[in-house]
Amino acid sequence: MVPIRSAQERDILASVCAIDSGRFITGGMDRRVLLWNLDMSTSYPKITIKSLSVGHSASVKALVYASSRRWLVSAAGSKLAITDMAENTEFMATGRQKWASNGIYNLHVHDQDDNLLLVEVRIKSSGLECCVNSI
Hints:
The chain is mainly beta. It contains no helices and twelve strands. The strands form three sheets. Strands 5, 6, 7, 8 and 9 form a five-stranded antiparallel β-sheet that branches. A four-stranded antiparallel β-sheet has the order 1-2-3-4, with no helix packed on it. A three-stranded antiparallel β-sheet has the order 10-11-12, with no helix packed on it. The protein is globular, with a radius of gyration of 15 Å. It starts with 12 loop residues before the first strand and ends with a strand.
């Protein structure tokens, strides 16, 4: 277990996404997306945290990583953003981010084809609705 002492502690953490065995990404109620690097080569883990340049204007509720493209897809409110992790730049500029009909609550990338993205959105009268998009 690694102790957490940062701006995204338990009370504002909304979503977590693993990249590999030593890195993961968090999204929070503070609208930020952070990349965490864990160095486990010493007796006490060393943690470095880097803020990613994702321009969300609402709480980050869902994250998913498309490994073959090295893209991070993040959702805040009803807005989707894609960040190129190789360049740490937004693939879609903030003004061109994709919108869902309602708030997004979960994202999934297909195991065998990461061109397929499943987006779960809340429909007020009937609960959750899913739709499949290609990225």
